[in-house]
Design brief:
Low-confidence stretches: 97-116
Number of strands: 0
Largest sheet: none
Helix content: 40-55%
Order of helices and strands: HH
Oligomer: single chain
Length: 135
Amino acid sequence: MKLLALGPQQTTLWWVALGIGLVVELVALSLLEFLLGLVKTIDDGVLSVWEMGKRVAANTATTWMFNQTAQLAEELEREVGAATYDAPLASQGNGQGNGQGNGGPPSQGGPPSQGGPPSQGAERPRRSVPRKYLT
């Protein structure tokens, strides 16, 4: 039986090959870690977009009712009319019904929130969304 042995040159070549393999393995590992970090970043971004999309969907689920709401608000406005500005509510102010909270007479003119009927030149609140956008 003959025993095979490696000479010093062959041993050196094996060590060089093992070193090169280790370097390749470390480079591949670092690239995979970098890729994993990118994937986690993308996943976090996708998750935040998904959550925002769900919030937008929840906030806009009833926008189809705006037209009907505007029509009903106009009907209510016609029904109530200017009667809401005739007298302040007793619950305004200190409960004495004058709307000022100091026991004095109600104010003459100004918005109803200040305790009196609106003056002749006062405007009613305007609609925040123009009518053309509601149809």
